[in-house]
């Protein structure tokens, strides 16, 4: 029996997989939550989440679960969030704070503004940076967020105490808290995550559709393996991320295409010193980033 | 004391680093060579190679070492090969076979034709697919080629027995022997190795030259790490490879840029089904390649 009152009473999680399930397990491990209620698309997933101790019980009707919740985490694919926001907003309690785990923020904030209207101050957008190959409740881990970054993208309407509560929840999960505007968040992740995925998918596709594709794959080695590891990611998930962050991603893709045009000019002119300069700047930055600088 | 005569008498290696040194160590470990003589650009490297047992002695003058050699491996950077070919051709013996370890073949063959002229049949081009981060004699390992691919790109002038001797030497190193034409070799490696390096360098450079580069690198995570690992490669080496394989690489770069144009059209039109199709084909091919299909 715990002597102190947990910091959070009821926490409701929409989506009990890797992101939502790990959030629930981490808060439980920290003794920071009284009860976790889970919503999901299929009864079997919720049963599995309950059997694994990820949630305490499955929710049936948001009308009965949202009003007295301290915190609601919407941890579904971004494409499903507008509908979930619409389902929960009518029942928001005085102290209910809603946050999300979406990997894009501009579109989530836009959808939230439509659904929350005058209550938008109760929605604190967030993006935990902790992907993994696996999904579903069985992939959830109490330590998933330990030492990982969580980016909060506060809205002007978020009161400080609500912001602090969401930060506190993620801190209890062991995460390092960062803040960006939603626009800057989307630019940054377009550049360092979404674009590399797009480029890697494009390279493998370009080879795979050739008549003699097998010949090429036969001689692909370790550099190819590293470069294309992310091309084994889920097509539907990445389709949704690309569409959700379309505007920023188009900007980054165009910047990259201009960069490739420059590289092509140098290569066509056999301009070795320009190629070496580009490669040298890249190598230095990559090594510094990896702590090998 | 070995009872049987080694299959190769004297083997001469130009470049006693990772590629040439490992070849020498592997033949020695197989008991397949009587003597290994090394040539290199600096006396200290040769002393180190000798101290490590990679070579038996350092060569001074090709005029005294090439005529009675069974096999000469030119394992220097490709840019140095024309000069080395010119130095050894005057001294080729009746039974001397020359091969190389260059990662491009069209340019090496062209340089060899200039130097060897009527003796071009004695040059059997090859490319061992075994890169590693480290270089120099200390990086050489007897098992570097075990289970790795070596691509031989035979010339019409190569007699079968010479081809077989070169294949046999690499087989003794534990390698799997493949054959491609020089042109096809260069296309394949432009696509699966040189282009990915170029794309990875270009991505990191595109970020590194921004005023707010730090912000982007702060949020780069595991996908970025894998995609950009090859952007930490040596700028000079990759400059030389890109220049050496310029024509094939330009072709592959243009194919890729056309692919990116398609991706951009789909993204700009929010054509989710086309994006999912591209990603799905790529994922399936990547997983099959990695044996996860």
Would you kindly provide a written description of the structure presented here, covering whatever features stand out?
Two copies of one chain form a homodimer. The first copy, chain A, is an alpha/beta fold and 293 residues long. Chain A folds into two domains: 8-180, NAD(P)-binding Rossmann-like Domain (Rossmann fold); 185-289, Orthogonal Bundle (6-phosphogluconate dehydrogenase C-terminal fold). Helix content of chain A is 51%, strand content 13%. Chain A has twelve helices and nine strands. Chain A has helices at 18-29, 43-51, 62-65, 81-88, 106-116, 160-172, 182-208, 213-218, 222-228, 235-244, 246-268, 272-289; strands at residues 8-14, 33-39, 57-58, 69-74, 97-100, 123-124, 126-128, 149-152, 176-179. In chain A, the strands form two sheets. In chain A, strands 3-2-1-4-5-6 form a six-stranded parallel beta sheet, with helices on both faces. A three-stranded mixed beta sheet of chain A has the order 7-8-9, covered by helices on one side. In chain A, helix 4 (81-88) links the parallel strand 4 and strand 5. Chain A is elongated and about 70 Å long. The mean pLDDT of chain A is 95. At the A-B interface, helix 7, helix 8, helix 9, helix 10 and helix 11 of A face helix 7, helix 8, helix 9, helix 10 and helix 11 of B.
């Amino acid at each position: 029996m715990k002597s102190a009152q947990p910091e959070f009473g009821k926490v409701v999680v929409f989506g009990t997989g890797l992101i939502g399930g790990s959030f629930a397990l981490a808060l439980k491990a920290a003794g920071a939550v009284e009860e976790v209620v889970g919503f999901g698309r299929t009864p079997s997933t919720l049963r599995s989440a309950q059997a694994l101790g990820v949630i305490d019980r499955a929710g049936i009707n948001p009308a009965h679960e949202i009003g007295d919740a301290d915190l609601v985490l919407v941890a579904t694919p971004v494409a499903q969030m507008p509908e979930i926001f619409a389902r929960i907003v009518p029942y928001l309690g005085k102290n209910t704070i809603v946050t999300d785990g979406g990997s894009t923020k501009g579109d989530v904030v836009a959808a939230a503004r439509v659904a929350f209207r005058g209550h938008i101050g109760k929605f604190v957008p967030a993006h935990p940076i902790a992907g993994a190959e696996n999904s579903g409740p069985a992939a959830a881990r109490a330590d998933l967020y330990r030492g990982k970054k969580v980016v909060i993208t506060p809205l002007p309407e978020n009161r400080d105490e609500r912001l602090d509560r969401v930060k506190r929840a993620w801190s209890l999960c062991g995460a390092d808290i960062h803040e960006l505007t939603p626009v800057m968040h989307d630019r940054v992740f377009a550049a360092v995550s979404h674009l590399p995925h797009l480029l890697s998918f494009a390279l493998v596709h370009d080879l795979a559709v050739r008549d003699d594709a097998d010949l090429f794959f036969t001689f692909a080695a370790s550099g190819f393996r590293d470069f294309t590891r992310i091309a084994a990611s889920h097509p539907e998930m990445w389709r949704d991320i690309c569409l959700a962050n379309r505007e920023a991603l188009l900007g980054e893709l165009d910047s990259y295409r201009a960069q490739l045009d420059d590289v092509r000019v140098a290569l066509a002119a056999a301009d070795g010193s320009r190629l070496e300069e580009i490669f040298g700047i890249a190598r230095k930055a990559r090594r510094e980033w990896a702590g090998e600088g």
